[in-house]
Amino acid sequence: MSYTLQPFKQSPNFTSGAQTKAFYGQPRSIQFGAGHWWDAPERFPSFNGVINALMNPSRQASAHAVVTAGLVQELVRAGDTSWATGKANPFTYSIEVDPQIIYRWRAGGDKAKANAIFETLCEFIADRGYHNLPWRPHNFWMSTGCNPIDWNDVMRRAKEIYNAKHNAPAPAPAPTPPEWQRNLKKWDTPVVKRIAREGAPLRDLITPSNVIKTFSKGTDIEIAAETKVNGWVYWLSKYAYEKGTGQGVDEYEFEKPDTRPEWQKNLKDIAPIKLMVLALQTPIVNLNDLTVIKQLGMGTWIDFTKSTTVGGVEYLISSYSATNAMPNGIKRADVGVPAEPPANEKPEWLENWEDIADVKMYTRADTDLVDLLDGKTVKVIPRATEVEVSSTTEWHGQKYAISTYSTLKKEGRGIRLDDLDMKPVTDVPVEPAPEQPTLEENVNWLMKAVKAILAFLGLKV
Q1: Which of 8, 137, 333, 378 is most buried, with most CB under 10 Å away?
Q2: Contact of 187 with 238, CB cutoff 8 Å
Q3: Phi then psi for 56, rounded to 5 degrees?
Q4: 51-55, 163-167, 223-227: the lowest-pLDDT one
């Protein structure tokens, strides 16, 4: 043998042959070869890395053998069932193949290594006596993107190696079909594609320099298959495929679909602008699927530099998200510039200011202390902080509590009333805390306190 068969390692992820019927409803047999590969070839996964993964009990996956150039590692004995192909497990022998093998049939990559992997795979199959099995890719049994290895080529070569080792007469060589037929691949479903330029040629795939006719820009053609000739990819119409005419159009002659998400298609630059969050709780959303990333409190200022639309709704993208290519956005309707109070008039917070009896309250979470003139955050007050409140006000439709310190200093700085509780919060947040009063109860209590003070002072309630 021209490869090294490493000492057997038993993966914990398998079903014994004796238990296969109990688990799968049929006894262990080997009717098919199941071909897998470790990962995408451009990631260059390692031989030992995939072995370690298939030896890991938490992965719940295994194969009978792992193959790379000149090396084979068996992990599950042939008489036992590996966990690789779902319902097909009891009647398949599975092999994980180094994905670099693909460059035997695909342009690019290390061609010599690809052929070495191919030879090792075929010889191992022949040595195990599985050269006459029908070999199929993983996605023959399961919905997966698993590999485009040419298993017909593998079976052909495995039979050659077996016959050579056992002195069997070599079969008469079959006539070699033209390259376009050897590389022909039928599409799962015909797809209508549009010609991108005027005069796109329909070529004779035996001699591609021969042009049969040309197509006008915008012509729609129902494509059913593709092939490769001299490294170039050609698409065949449904008619050409079914009739075997050997005629096709270069792949690059067709319009390329715009696969970008909607927000990227509609993305545009805007003049930089600074806007405030106007709603009580405004979500930042992932523009790919509109899931909520986090909530912003009213009064938060944000710099925006881009806009887009998703589902007909306009979103703005912050300068930070734009700079870091993050798909994060806020609805345009949720931000703006707060109205300025008329000249020579009291600011809104002072117009709505009310003195109350001093009361101790506690922050429910990390809470913004807001400047009630411009909505900017002065600082963040940690969760469970005790705050002595001496007055209240209303600003942009929200109730705010003003501390004794800010009241005495006549500073327009407040904490949203719904971010405070009458009782200290527990160490482990409970939402809502059963023993804590509701926002409405807090407001009612404060209003009663205000009325009591006004009555005591002899003022009308």
Answers
A1: 137
A2: no
A3: -85, 120
A4: 163-167
Q: Please, is 406 exposed, middle or buried when counting C-beta atoms within 10 Å of its C-beta (0-12, 13-18, 19+)?
A: buried
pLDDT tens digits, one per residue of 1-20: 789 999 999 999 999 999 99
Lowest-pLDDT choice from 182-186, 317-321, 336-340, 398-402: 336-340
Biggest CA-to-CA distance, the chain: 119
For 4-165, the fitting CATH number among 3.40.50.720, 3.20.20.70, 2.40.30.170, 3.40.80.10 is: 3.40.80.10
Helix axes 111-127, 151-165, angle to 10 degrees: 60
Tell the residue number behind the tokens 């192909």, with chain if given.
85
* Residues 68 and 41: beta-carbon distance below 8 Å: no
Tokens of 116: 């070495």
CATH class of this structure's domain 348-456: mainly beta
Give CA separation, 331 vs 104, 276, 278, 328, 427, in Å: 51, 12, 11, 10, 35
CATH topology for the 179-253 domain: SH3 type barrels. (2.30.30)
H-helix segments, 335-376: 348-351
The model's pLDDT over 308-355, given as tens digits with 9 standing for 90+, comes to 999 999 999 999 999 998 999 999 999 998 766 555 578 899 999 999
Q: CA of 428: how far to CAs of 304, 364, 380, 417, in Å? A: 36, 11, 20, 21
Closest CA to 93 of 109, 72, 74, 68: 74
Give helix then strand counts, H and E, for the chain: 11, 28
* pLDDT over threshold 50, residue 446: yes
Mean pLDDT, the chain, integer: 89
Angle at 54 between CA 52 and CA 57, to 5 degrees: 95
Residues 6+ apart with CB under 8 A from 171: 163
Bond from prior residue into 432 cis (ω within 30 degrees of 0): yes
**Residue 86, SS3?**
helix
Residue count (the chain): 461
Interval 136-159: pLDDT, tens? 998 888 877 666 889 999 999 999
Distance CA 237, CA 398 (A): 65
In the chain, what is the straight-line distance between the N-terminal and C-terminal CA atoms, in Å? Answer: 102
Q: Using only the alpha carbons of the chain, give its radius of gyration.
A: 36
Phi, psi of 197 (to 5 degrees): -140, 160
Q: Residue 419: exposed, middle, or buried by beta-carbon count in 10 A (0-12, 13-18, 19+)?
A: buried
